[in-house]
Write a structure and sequence with these properties.
InterPro entries: CAP12/PCTIR_TIR_dom. This protein is an alpha/beta fold. Helices cover about 45% and strands about 10% of the residues. It is elongated, with a radius of gyration of 28 Å.
Length: about 375
């Protein structure tokens, strides 16, 4: 069953997988049509012109009257704030505003639901991190084919540096550092983000993953160009002869193993099928990748997160990326248990779902997939 693949077809297939990731990066991270992020940015900018320019205590909530742009002779003096102290005075009609009042006004005028865009930012950040991890996994597979050359190192580093900041981290960017001196008796010694800055932080929280996804797509495109330009220099590769079974702690994988071995008469492999003494995890993974002609990655509901959702074990998720990178999406099939949440970067990919605790219900479907791929 093991056969050498034509080198050009192998690389083109790999490039197609990279293109799939690139297209996901360019298509999935889109704001709904009813969210005009540019309008929100414009409103924030207009209100910022009326701000006191100070994050010290209550100063963060001080704006010019009616949120208008201060006249040229107006001045908010952070040395005294709204309390005149000798020579220190603030000139003009400066007012203390309610924090939530300003924040709500910004989102009302923009027509955007604040909670909705925060949720979008959270979802986009999680999706991007998963896509980024998938991309890095694909690069690890690429290194097995062409080696860890300088271009691959550079591209990997570029992808690794792409990060989605949390809302808390973005808020901190607005708070000035360094020494602050004031004689304002009402200063509480703390610094706060201004309400319009909070709105801007929320905007950035939603748009930062979008920008990262665009950059990721561009980096991947450069990687594809490099891989295809070195096509004739790449060594030939071959598929192995075994069915790899990736699994977590659940023992359901043994039923799959018995089905493959006893009924289909095929050879199988899994991480612990041979003694591990003397082998590193990396060496064992490379051996399994080399020996595999097909992979079944069993995602069972084992890891619970704070939202009380259950996901597959991280080792299975990692193996999923590795084998999809080596074998392609059609030969690395996700077997997902009912109740196990999908990771964002596997949405729409080939997978088979089985009833909770009843993996034998999909044996016939597995057999058909193996026939389709010429394994049987």
């Amino acid at each position: 069953m093991s056969k050498n693949l034509d080198k050009e077809k192998k690389i083109q297939r790999y490039c197609n997988r990279l293109r799939e990731i690139k297209e996901i990066a360019r298509s999935v991270f889109q704001l709904p049509n009813n969210i005009n992020i540019d309008e929100l940015k414009s409103i924030i900018f207009d209100i910022s012109k009326s701000w006191s320019q100070s994050n010290a205590g209550y100063h963060a909530r001080v704006y010019y009257n009616e949120l208008e742009t201060p006249p040229p002779n107006a001045l908010f003096n952070s040395m005294c704030g709204l309390t005149d102290i000798g020579f220190y005075v603030s000139v003009g009609d400066w007012r203390l505003y309610d924090y939530d009042g300003i924040l709500d006004l910004i989102f009302e005028e923009s027509g955007i639901n604040k909670d909705c865009i925060i949720e979008i930012g959270k979802e986009f950040s999680e999706n991007f991190e998963n896509l980024k991890e998938n991309s890095l996994t694909q690069i690890e597979i690429l290194k097995l084919v062409i080696g860890n050359c300088d271009i691959i190192k550079k591209i990997r580093n570029q992808i690794s540096k792409l990060q989605c900041l949390s809302l808390v981290e973005i808020r901190k960017l607005f708070i000035p550092s360094g020494q602050f001196i004031t004689r304002d008796p009402n200063f509480d010694g703390k610094f706060y983000i201004a309400p319009h800055q909070e709105a801007d932080a929320i905007r950035l929280y939603a748009t930062n993953p979008i920008q990262n996804a665009k950059e990721l797509a561009n980096i991947i495109e450069r990687l594809i160009d490099f891989v295809e330009s070195t096509l004739n220099e790449l060594p030939a590769v071959s598929l192995g002869s075994k069915i790899f079974i990736g699994h977590g702690h659940s023992l359901l994988w043994r039923e799959i193993k018995d089905f493959i071995q006893d009924r289909l008469k095929l050879s199988w492999d899994e991480f612990n099928s041979i003694p591990q003494a003397g082998f590193s995890v990396k060496e064992r993974l490379e051996e399994m990748l080399e020996n595999a002609a097909f992979a079944l990655l069993i995602h069972t509901a084992e890891d619970e997160i704070k939202s009380q959702k259950f996901f597959a074990r991280q080792n299975v998720v990692h193996e999923t990326g590795l084998f999809q990178g080596k074998l392609g999406f059609n030969r690395a099939i996700i077997i997902r248990e009912e109740g196990c949440e999908e990771f964002s970067n596997v949405h729409g990919l080939t997978q088979i779902q089985f009833p909770k605790g009843n993996i034998s219900a999909i044996f016939e479907e597995i057999r058909k997939v193996l026939e389709r791929e010429g394994i049987l």
